[in-house]
Structure formats: C-alpha cells, structure tokens
Amino acid sequence: MKLILFGPPGAGKGTQATFIAEKYNVAHISTGDVLREAVKNQTEVGLHAKSFMDKGELVPDSVVIEIIKQKLSSLDSMKFMLDGFPRTVPQAEALDTMLGELGVNLDVVVFLDVDDEEVVQRIMKRQELENRQDDTEDVVRNRLNVYREQTSPLGEFYDNKGILKKINGIGSVDDISERINEVLLAIV
Ligand code: ADP
C-alpha cells in the first residue's frame, strides 16, 4: 500500500501513523521527524531548516523534496506512508514525478479533518508534554495560516485524482483508528 496521511498540524497524524505503520506494514516517512533529527544532529540541512521551523514557516521545497527522494529510493519494497509531505502544490507535483519514475501510483490520501480550535487546544497540550520548540501559541497560529494558504489546496489536488478520503479527526484515538481502518481495509 502507498498512502499519504494528510491534515492540519495537530490533527493526530503522528499518532495514527504509528498505528497504520504497524498494522499495514508500511514504512513511515515523516518529513517533520527527519527534519527534527537533522536539527538535533546539527547537520547542514538541520541548521538551514531550523530557522524556518522555529517560526512555523515551511522549509523550502527543494530541501524536503530531496529528503523524500532519498527515503523513497532506499525502501526495500514500495509500501510506504508519507506523513507531513507533500505540503505544497510543487511538492505534490515533484512527488508525482518521482512516483512516475518508480512506476507506482498512490492508493489513497487519508485526510484527517480537524477544526482550528481543536488543533490549537491539542497543540497547547502537547507543548506541556513534549516541549516542542514550534508549539508556542504564536507559532502554532502561523503554522495554521501556512496550512490554510499553502497546504490545504492539496485536498482538491488529490480529490481531483479521485483518491482523497476524508475522515472525521475528532474523537478518541481508537475511534479515529477505526475510521481509518474502514478506509484502508477496503483498499488492501
Ligand atoms: P505538524 O504536523 O505539527 O505541523 P511536522 O512535524 O509535520 O508538524 O512539521 C514540523 C515543521 O517541519 C513544519 O512546521 C515545517 O517547518 C517543517 N516541515 C515538515 N514537513 C515539511 C514539508 N513537507 N515542507 C516544508 N516544511 C516541512
């Protein structure tokens, strides 16, 4: 299976991604995780990315596209889930090109739908627990704006391809996993 997990910051992508990766045996590719690791290790990419991440801005397309290229080319099998990528139309177009070169198609884009108010509440709670640098209220609001302007158009992009599945992202973690299962079990 080849899928994208899509939705606003704080929609619960990371939580559901862990469950999907185990149950469906797909590689979990999270650009956020790769970038945070690069920041931690103070690599060249990390140092460059940090200034954008701290402000809640997107890291330049060329940087994240390169990350995804490397990740996809190092997979043993073409079973993967992208989490946090693509986030812009140029990223989605670059992904189409990469997948075309690999000769594969996406099966589904799972859209975890959560409203802004819930997102801000969840992220504020996460800040208390995890203390992520980019989880302060101002930065969260900026991430939401960036999402609205640059990322949400991808909903239409994938809906036009007929592979977008919208899931209500409000409810318990188990309820949401169940909703995702209903969609994925119909595909595998
Ligand atoms: P969240 O889903 O909570 O917004 P992520 O962990 O996915 O957080 O991403 C954290 C930050 O990493 C983003 O705010 C952005 O700066 C950067 N980032 C992650 N993925 C991408 C991407 N595909 N394009 C550009 N920037 C990205």
Describe this structure in words.
The chain is α/β, with parallel strands linked by helices. The protein has a single domain, classed as 3-Layer(aba) Sandwich (Rossmann fold), CATH 3.40.50.300. It is built from nine helices and five strands, in the order E-H-E-H-H-H-E-H-E-H-H-H-E-H. It has helices spanning 13-24, 31-40, 44-55, 61-73, 89-102, 116-130, 137-151, 153-160, 173-185; strands at residues 2-6, 27-30, 80-83, 108-113, 164-168. A five-stranded parallel β-sheet has the order 2-3-1-4-5, sandwiched between helices. Helix 2 (31-40) crosses helix 3 and helix 4 packs parallel to helix 5 (89-102). The model has no long low-confidence stretch (mean pLDDT 94). Bound molecules: adenosine-5'-diphosphate. The site of adenosine-5'-diphosphate has 19 residues, from helix 2 and helix 3.
Low-confidence stretches: none
Strand content: 5-15%
CATH superfamily, by name, is: P-loop containing nucleotide triphosphate hydrolases
The geometry reads as globular
Q: Going across the major beta sheet, what is the strand order?
A: 2-3-1-4-5
Give the N-terminus to C-terminus distance in angstroms.
7 Å
Query: Mean pLDDT, nearest integer?
Result: 94
- CATH topology-level fold name: Rossmann fold
Classified by CATH, the class is Alpha Beta
Heteromolecules bound: adenosine-5'-diphosphate
Number of domains: 1
Number of helices: 9
SSE order: EHEHHHEHEHHHEH
Taking the sheet with the most strands, its summary is: 5 strands, parallel
Compute the number of strand runs.
5
CATH architecture grouping: 3-Layer(aba) Sandwich
Helix content: 55-70%
Which value, in Å, is the CA radius of gyration?
16 Å
Tell me the structural class: alpha/beta
